[in-house]
Amino acid sequence: MALPKIEEVRKLNDEELAEEILATKRKLFDLRFQQATRQLDNKTHLFKHTRHRMAQLLTVERERQLNINQPSSTTEEA
Length: 78
Fold this sequence. Notes:
Order of helices and strands: HHH
Helix content: 55-70%
Mean pLDDT: 86
Strand content: under 5%
InterPro entries: Ribosomal_protein_uL29, Ribosomal_uL29, Ribosomal_uL29_sf
Protein name: Large ribosomal subunit protein uL29
Structural class: mainly alpha
Low-confidence stretches: none
GO biological process, one term: translation
GO molecular function: structural constituent of ribosome
């Protein structure tokens, strides 16, 4: 499973972003619970993926709060 791309997160609208944040928090909680009860079985890489996804979601949410516009990759200088 590859790490998710930030471009995918930026395509979400505000409502979808909030739902995704809640779902990711829940997934991280479930992973911690499974690890504590020894049900995870050598899948600790899922922690990295989930934390990475959470960081992306929170970064995009904060960018939107601050109205930070990302420069477009196809800028033309005239």
